[in-house]
Amino acid sequence: MSKTEPRVALVTGASSGIGLVTARALRRDGYRVFGTSRKQMPDAADGITMLVCDVTDDASVQAVVDDVMARTGQIDLLVNNAGIGLLGGAEESSAAQAKAVFDVNVFGVLRMTNAVLPVMRNQRSGRIINLSSIFGLVPAPYNALYASTKHAIEGYSESLDHEVRTQGIRVVLVEPGATRTSFEENLTRPDQPLPFYDSIRDFAEQLMREIIEKGDAPEIVAATVVRAANAAAPKRRYTSGKVAGQVRLMRRFMPESFVDKNLRKFVRLPN
């Protein structure tokens, strides 16, 4: 690889929100950026090449990696950002719906990662950044299945980093807090709703809207991704935003009873 060639980044879920803002930040930082979306989108005016990719489909994932390689001959950075949310009582979702959420949020990350690892191993260099969440650090009442996917990504990423580090590859987690995007507008609803949860679910959704409205700008997450991408000796995880940092410290150093009590207070559940 010529030293004059720009680094190549592939960002999943880059049609809007954190993914789009991150793709733009990487482009400004000098990367040649390819973004993915489930449907065909025009290339962005700021130099981001948009490609179609369904992270739940093996062939689609391999095709997008092959396309980027055909155009550039390298992939230096993969940002696994594509994901979906699910709000409701845990028992309101069927096993099939739970599998569908995991298929995007967990196995989508696995598919993308498995597709780029041979490329990066051949290069003897590469970085994979997986977007987790503070919900990968703490319980998330009425977001149990979504939080489960983020806990899974935490364990997968940390373990994989140990496996590939000797190959010149690093795997890094970025853990945002509440972020001002349209995430809450695109939430999946339970496929087996129970009347018992109707009012609770409505309250949980309203609370989420309030929290997101006061949350961090997506640019803060994007800046964290760029920092993690460029670090010569990256940390295993990067929290993004003040609240996420506080949650991580609380989870790490405070007694479990303290964390439990404050979590219930934050989401307005009785102790």
Automatic annotation (TrEMBL):
Keywords from the UniProt entry: Oxidoreductase
Keyword Oxidoreductase in record: yes
Pfam family, one: adh_short
SMART domains per record: PKS_KR (SM00822)
Every Ketoreductase domain range: 7-177
CDD domains: 17beta-HSD-like_SDR_c
Molecular function via GO: oxidoreductase activity
Domain of life: Bacteria
Classification via NCBIfam families: PRK06179.1
Entry's family note: Belongs to the short-chain dehydrogenases/reductases (SDR) family.
Name by which UniProt lists this protein: Short-chain dehydrogenase/reductase
Origin species: Phyllobacterium endophyticum
